[in-house]
Amino acid sequence: MAKKPLKFSVVDAFTESAFKGNPAAVCLLEEDRDDQWLQALAAEFNLSETCYLTRLSDSVSDPALSSTPARFRLRWFTPVTEVDLCGHATLAAASTLFKSGLVNTDIIEFSTLSGILTAKKVPDGVEVANGEAQDSYFIELNFPADPSNEFNSTDALLISNALGGASVIDIRRTTVTDDLLVLLPSGKAVLDLLPQYDEIKKCPGTRGVIVTAVAPPESGYDFYSRFFCPTNGIGEDPVCGSAHCALASYWCNKLGKCDLVAYAASPRGGTINIHLDEQNQRVLLRGKAVTVMEGTVLV
């Protein structure tokens, strides 16, 4: 029997502008597809992430029950592999569900390889000229914190060379995603860095390399960062939500506060508002998203 056409959206996450932030393909599965097909479609999209949603419960139909979560299974694929955690594609998936009318609730629960993750609408406080509130909101993701440990490695020179000869102030290793977290001298150093992807593949850690530095005082941000993940088929991930689970733990401790505004300093750029719940070891990531494309997969 022929498969039904599959609707998809391409959504730019952690941005309010099209062609900025981090793009993800969002696909709502209405029938089973095998993993080989899911991976092949992700390779066809060739974005940092393609995500697949499967409904686990009916959408909330009574507006009075808008606090009751809608439930979906969510899986994430890079062009070459399935991954355990992805922030920007989760934001993209939530944005698609909220905007499409497929859910009538302000909260969505996603069942994932990293457990239950939630996304909810949070008003952004923007008002129109006559004082009436717009239908404008952040999407807040509730993710696990990812503390990092000191990394006493003899590979400091290798890591510096992989980052184009950048001056390295400190190197740490994250506990959840097993990334390297590399502190650079300045935000400008983060912006100017020229990654050497073949060398990054040789660095310790099983996923990728996060580089970060305190933001310039006039920028309005607390810190800058970039994330490189060539092992998973992603040279530079434009705005990596899961990397900010580690960055939140690091910078909240370093700056002595639990609320931060982060700038992902890739060429596309993106903004993430962060709250660290240190007691429960959770990170709340807030951002916006823009749908730039809708279509149908025919095979």
Main structural class: alpha+beta
Amount of beta strand: 35-45%
Largest sheet: 18 strands, mixed
Q: What are the secondary-structure elements, in order, as H or E?
A: EEHEEEHEEEEHEEHHEEEHEEEE
Enumerate the spans where pLDDT stays under 50 for 5 or more consecutive residues. none
Distance between the termini: 12 Å
What is the share of helical residues?
A: 10-25%
Radius of gyration: 19 Å
> How would you state the average pLDDT, rounded?
93
Instruction: Label the overall shape.
Output: globular
Number of helical segments? 6
In total, the number of strands is 18
Give an overview of the whole structure.
Helices cover 18% and strands 38% of the residues. It has 299 residues and is α+β, with helices and mostly antiparallel strands. It has an 18-stranded mixed sheet that branches. It is globular.
Mind sketching the topology for me?
Layout: E1 6-13, E2 22-29, H1 35-45, E3 49-55, E4 70-77, E5 82-83, H2 87-100, E6 107-112, E7 115-123, E8 137-144, E9 148-150, H3 156-162, E10 170-174, E11 180-183, H4 187-192, H5 197-200, E12 209-214, E13 223-229, E14 234-237, H6 243-255, E15 259-264, E16 270-277, E17 282-287, E18 289-297
Parallel strand pairs: 2-3, 4-6, 11-12, 13-15
Antiparallel strand pairs: 1-2, 1-18, 3-4, 4-5, 6-7, 7-8, 8-17, 9-10, 10-11, 12-13, 13-14, 15-16, 16-17
